[in-house]
Amino acid sequence: MNFFSVFQRNKVTSYNILHMACAYTSMEYYRSIPEANNPVELIDNVLHEPGAPYYVHQKVVLDIAFNIRLRKKGKLKKGTLVTAPFDVYLDEVANAVQPDIIFILPDNPGVLKGQFHGVPDFIVEVLSQSDRKHDQKVKLELYERFRVKEYWIVDPTTQMVHGYSLVRRRFKALSPQKGKINSRLLDLVITF
């Protein structure tokens, strides 16, 4: 059975497709997408579907997450570390993302219930081959607008790390580092 026979059998017309598409908000559509290992994000009501990450991307994500987990102590002990794929609803209307790594401090007002509804305190995005500019521009602006306290962009090929810290509602660029994240927020130096 091909695509067109399914539509003919179910009497689906282009009008019905358009009507079905318009009957949902972008967020309702996003929430209806089945759970999958490939990331799907909604940013300003626009769906974004990057390709599956490569091995080097995943290795760096796991190395960073493992090093954070090993060093959790003090105020971080009760914090929550999560890696993608995992939905983060920055709002309930137009923005749901799947950052590579998030850390939620114990005093964060967000709600962790199946997914996280709120703004993580700490986010790491490891650049992908197909999606570099998205993390470096679109997500940088998004995370600044939602007031993420620290945002880290890691290039897995060169191991260069660019960090941003929220100061008076604006991101301040931190000194680039190679092979490490020096987080003042978490009071950790994370090597990978």
Chain-averaged pLDDT: 86
Strand count: 15
- Total helical elements: 5
Identify the CATH class. Answer: Alpha Beta
Distance between the termini: 49 Å
Q: Tell me the major beta sheet.
A: 7 strands, mixed
Given the helix and strand composition, which structural class is it? alpha+beta
Question: What share of residues are in beta strands?
Answer: 25-35%
CATH-derived architecture: Alpha-Beta Complex
User: Poorly predicted ranges (pLDDT <50, ≥5 residues)?
Assistant: 1-20
CATH topology: tt1808, chain A
Structural domain tally: 1
Explain what you see.
With 192 residues, the chain is an alpha+beta fold. It has a single domain, classed as tt1808, chain A (Alpha-Beta Complex), CATH 3.90.1570. 28% of the residues lie in helices and 29% in strands. It contains 5 helices and 15 strands. The strands form 4 sheets. Strands 3, 6, 9, 10, 11, 12 and 13 form a 7-stranded mixed sheet that branches. A 4-stranded mixed sheet has the order 5-4-8-7, with no helix packed on it. The longest helix is centred in the first third of the chain and has 16 residues. The N terminus is likely disordered.
